[in-house]
Design goal:
Largest sheet of chain B: none
Oligomer: heterotrimer
Strand content of chain B: under 5%
Order of helices and strands of chain B: HHHHHHHH
Chains: A alpha/beta (153), B mainly alpha (263), C alpha/beta (271)
Helix content of chain B: over 70%
Structural class of chain A: alpha/beta
Radius of gyration of chain B: 22 Å
Shape of chain B: globular
Radius of gyration of chain A: 23 Å
Structural class of chain B: mainly alpha
Largest sheet of chain A: 8 strands, mixed
């Protein structure tokens, strides 16, 4: 076999490997959601974040607009602080928007739902969302249900 | 009676010493190969030749195996998931198992059997026919000219082959899920995209296959270089490459999995 | 005897618990053909590997061109080896290269000559061994004798100061044997180098050697010019030279008397 064919085949092989990697990254994993990390970061405090994780989606009306970048615990307020990066084109959410931790489907993963408010001012980088609703924890819901039943009787 | 016992103990001791000295030789050898890598970079032609015989010639078996593994995975996942009405998650199961485990591990096992044994046999034959000695006497370092290109080609080929295996496997899974079982194509991809992490799953899988490539290539070239230069010794060395290579892959896979995914 | 090129003093070497050389002294002159002969298994090939620095002696020194070969740094050893040619028993041609590329190999590795000069050199060397016409063949297509001749062309590619021949006549038919004998002689005379021929083919070797060493059981048994060796009175040398079945080297491997063994019952002695 001459050098040219040899080099050609090896070139094809390496290219095929790289294409395979690229294809796996693009179509079968969440590379797309990494795209341009130039969104603005806002924060929200929650009593309970349930199963929320870093990189969980942030959505408004079901449309994905950003993702969770950091989760930490505030020892002064005894609350969870969730930082989320919102894609730059969604830059006109009113400051009194509210954030809730929701579940997709009955047993699906958890995400943050943003509900727009009515103020004229918009959320910017570093803003903190005041109105939040924590994750629903099944045990608490059942507990509340039992209490209310007991009260009725 | 005591004699037999003493003989056995002596045998054990001799075996242990031999194993330790072999391990030592393998490590010294690895250092020499590393030293040889730099000298090899001036001759890319040598590497290309080896990429061909190590990588390209292993490609067919990898593609065929990947396709069928992906298809079988999809079928099995379907039967397991359909009872829970969760067959939409099929793609997650197929893609995750391919990226994390099956891709790197099966590729490495096939690689050890196809390319590893060929490497050992080739180097062993060069040793038996005094070609390596001949190079030394021509003031050419055979580790630099013969071993290093083969070692490096193995290390480069393995992750590429594993990526191809996984990609073909995913396509095989897609064929079965969408064309054969009639699942929704959009759900197939969107589920996978939602649940498969780029670095955690694909990245760690690639790290695994880099490690496997390193270890299998090392074993293969060392067994060839260290073999007893007779036809019998050559056969034993080839067998050892496949056996030790496969065992090393499986043990390392466990260790790596525990380190990467066991939080 | 002309100036000494290789000086071996008090050489001791053993492998796997078996003593191969015990206190060997040798002087190999800078020009002419020196033959080293001895029965199979006396470590003749090992001696060449020791001279080439591929093996390390347990004791003693080997000096090649004034340099103690086992104390050289790798770089210097390689520099010295460029001036040594070695012909292996099998030829040791690189099987994935053509005949032409095999001969070109050391030239390409060690010089920066352009392609035209490499080609000219290779053709000259191949012509010297009569195989210019075979330059496009692969080593697998060569007969054993031709492979050795190509290996010779490769060994002289860099114009070495010495050429070592490891069993060059073994397993050859009479014609290629004759060709090889003639070639070794003519190359030696044309290049005016030191040729070391290791062999147990008495007749062929004696016909071209200028000086002969006979080794057995790890020591030099006898040395001298071919005539001196032929007229030797040593019983051992006579047995070796004339190929007698029985003599100082007994026909029977060491064993107890036959009768004792026959009546010793069943099984082997090691039982």
């Amino acid at each position: 076999m001459n050098t040219r064919t040899l080099e050609l085949l090896v070139g094809l092989f390496v290219a095929a490997g790289l294409v395979a990697l690229f294809m796996l990254a693009m179509t079968a994993s969440n590379l797309a959601s990494y795209g341009g990390d130039d969104g603005y970061v806002i924060k929200a405090h929650f009593d309970n974040i349930g199963g929320l994780k870093v990189r969980s989606p942030v959505a408004a009306s079901g449309v994905r607009i950003g993702r969770v970048t950091d989760i930490s615990y505030d020892l002064e307020g005894f609350e969870a602080i969730v930082s989320m990066s919102i894609d730059p084109q969604y830059n006109s959410f009113p400051v009194d928007s509210s954030a809730s931790i929701l579940t997709s489907g009955l047993l699906g993963e958890q995400y943050i739902g943003l509900e727009p408010g009515a103020e004229e001012e918009f959320l910017v980088a570093g803003s903190v969302i005041d109105i939040t609703q924590s994750a629903l924890v099944l045990e608490q819901i059942i507990g509340q249900f039992l209490y209310s039943k007991a009260d009725e009787e | 009676m005591v004699d037999i016992l003493l003989d056995r103990i002596q045998g054990l001791g001799r075996g242990t010493l031999a194993a330790v000295s072999r391990l030592g030789r393998a490590n010294v050898f690895l250092l020499e190969v590393f030293a040889g890598l730099s000298g090899m970079l001036t001759r890319p032609g040598l590497l290309i030749k080896q990429l061909f015989s190590v990588g390209v010639q292993t490609l067919i078996i990898i593609v065929v195996a990947g396709l069928f593994v992906g298809m079988v995975m999809a079928l099995q996942a379907y039967y397991a998931l359909v009872d829970f009405g969760a067959e939409d998650s099929l793609s997650v199961m197929v893609v995750l198992s391919l990226l994390r485990e099956l891709g790197p591990v099966i590729t490495a096992l096939l690689f050890a059997g196809r390319a590893g044994s060929a490497l050992t046999a080739e180097i062993g034959l060069m040793k038996a026919t005094e070609q390596l000695s001949g190079m030394e006497m021509m003031a050419v370092n055979p580790i630099e000219r013969v071993i290093a290109p083969r070692f490096l080609a193995g290390m480069i080929s393995m992750p590429l082959l594993a990526a191809i295996f996984s990609a073909v496997g995913v396509m095989g899974g897609y064929l079965v899920a969408v064309e054969l079982l009639g699942l929704d194509a959009g759900a197939f991809w969107s589920q996978a995209q939602a649940k498969v992490e780029l670095f955690e799953d694909l990245g760690n899988g690639m790290i695994k296959s880099l490690v496997f490539g390193f270890v299998v290539s090392w074993i293969a070239v060392f067994e060839g270089y260290d073999c007893i230069p007779t036809s019998e010794g050559l056969g034993q060395a080839t067998t050892r490459t496949v056996v030790y290579g496969s065992l090393a892959i499986l043990v390392l896979d466990f260790v790596l999995t525990a380190l990467m995914f066991g939080k | 005897m002309s100036e000494t090129l290789i000086k071996i003093r008090g050489l001791k070497f053993s492998r796997g618990g078996r003593v191969i050389f015990d206190n060997v002294d040798m002087d190999i002159p800078r020009t002419g053909i020196t033959a080293i002969m001895g029965p199979s298994g006396t470590g003749k090939t090992t001696l060449l590997k020791l001279i080439g620095g591929q093996l390390r002696p347990d004791a003693g020194t080997i000096e090649v061109d004034g340099q103690n070969i086992h104390q050289l740094k790798t770089k210097d050893l390689y520099a010295l080896r460029k001036r040594m040619g070695m012909l292996f028993q099998s030829g040791a041609l690189l099987t994935d290269l053509s005949v032409f590329e095999n001969v070109a190999y050391p030239i390409r590795e060690h010089t920066k000559l352009n392609e035209r000069m490499v080609r000219q050199l290779v053709l000259l060397k191949l012509n010297a061994v009569g195989l210019r016409g075979a330059m496009d063949l692969s080593p697998a297509e060569l007969s054993g004798g031709m492979a050795r001749r190509v290996a010779m062309a490769r060994a002289i590619a860099l114009d070495p100061m010495m050429i070592m021949y490891d069993e060059p006549f073994t397993g050859q038919d009479p014609i290629s044997m004759g060709v090889l004998v003639k070639l070794i002689k003519s190359l030696n005379d044309a290049l005016n180098v030191c040729s070391i021929v290791v062999s147990h083919d008495v007749y062929e070797t004696m016909s071209i050697a200028n000086y002969v060493y006979i080794i057995s059981a790890g020591t030099v048994v006898e040395h001298g010019s071919p005539d001196e060796i032929r007229n030797s009175h040593s019983e051992w040398t006579r047995q070796f030279m004339e190929g007698l079945a029985d003599g100082p080297v007994p026909f029977h491997f060491d064993a107890p008397p036959l009768l004792d063994d026959l009546f010793a019952g069943s099984g082997t002695r090691r039982g």
